[in-house]
Amino acid sequence: MSEKNVIHTKWMKRAIFLASLGKNTTSPNPRVGAVILDKNGSLISEGFHYKAGMPHAEAMAFNNLKKDAKGGSMYVNLEPCCHHGKTPPCVDKVISSGIKKVYVSIEDPDKRVAGKGIKLLKEAGIQVHLGLCKKESLDLNKAFIYKNITRKSYGVLKWAMSLDGRVALKNGKSKWITNKESRSRVHSFRAEFDAIIIGGNTLRKDNPLLTSRGKKTPEPLRVVFTKSLDLPSNANLWDCNEAKTLVIYDSSSANESYLPRIPKCVEVEKVSSDNPELIAEILARRGCNKVLWECGPKLATAAMRSNCIQEIITFIAPKVLGGENSMNPFGDFEFEEMHEIIKLSDFQVSLIGDDICVKSSFEN
Ligand SMILES: NC(=O)c1ccc[n+]([C@@H]2O[C@H](COP(=O)([O-])OP(=O)(O)OC[C@H]3O[C@@H](n4cnc5c(N)ncnc54)[C@H](OP(=O)(O)O)[C@@H]3O)[C@@H](O)[C@H]2O)c1
Are 123 and 254 contained in the same domain? Predict the structure, then answer.
């Protein structure tokens, strides 16, 4: 890499780092960071997008300017916007600042922008360089990009299991398979998500709280998907002071006479089938970029089958639950041949005390 490229990469990596500071808060918006250098290449400002409705990264960087940006350059990990949303277009600010060069890592997949921001900058005589640190930028905003392209939330499936691959005893008891540190790690991990999904049976068996224990404010939306609507009238998820809860039920199979069991503070939405894809679509419309599926084997299998899961995270404890009828993480996919099986890649393995944590995504 030439000396010049090393310098450009350094500043783009700084923009990406700044963007990552909005990791838990920007949804439904992307994670964006911006750096401004003066005409001599010295840092004169930086900023990042914190939350929807608050200034975009570029606007934040202009607000923080210590010196005139005229003749300078900007590094930003996502194409500057050119539309009036909750805040004015960033391209206008860049153009009026007199900046001469803009380094953009990736185009914004949002149809209102999608290359138009870059075009406007070029038409204003600004040199635009696209593609620096592309891989890192795609990775940082993969959920935002996925949601914009598919109109569905990006799904991560998480489960905890014993060394013999069991997620619960045959009577449904599963508290606790993993150690305290792993469970605390899950609380922090939940803060990265906009919603956490379980099925009705996990609610009945485990009565979970499903919060980040205050690591995210507001807490992620808690979602229960039920076919029967046969949910208890007392449940931790009904405590709306902890976090918001949404019950989604399949109106083709549910018994609506159970509806009064759900308190008024809980939102209820009906769908016309038990296809988990409908959940991913509803949550995307509600602005959820990234959602965590913490369901048991039945819903996990259905969610995998309908392509709602893009990544998997597994906690494996050094324990044996045994039992022919104890629960596996999944039900039957009815594979007959080895070429049909699900293959995973991008393995990341870590130790949490005596538990093992494995993160992986699907092979393309
Ligand atoms: N170790 C772990 O990581 C972990 C995590 C979660 C759960 N678990 C354990 O898993 C057990 C529950 O397993 P589960 O498979 O019944 O989980 P679940 O998360 O309750 O999912 C199944 C339920 O989801 C609802 N559902 C909606 N659409 C569905 C569809 N298309 N296909 C299947 N279900 C759909 C149904 O609720 P209704 O019955 O209300 O209609 C169904 O009973 C519990 O014992 C719990 O302790 C373990």
Answer: no
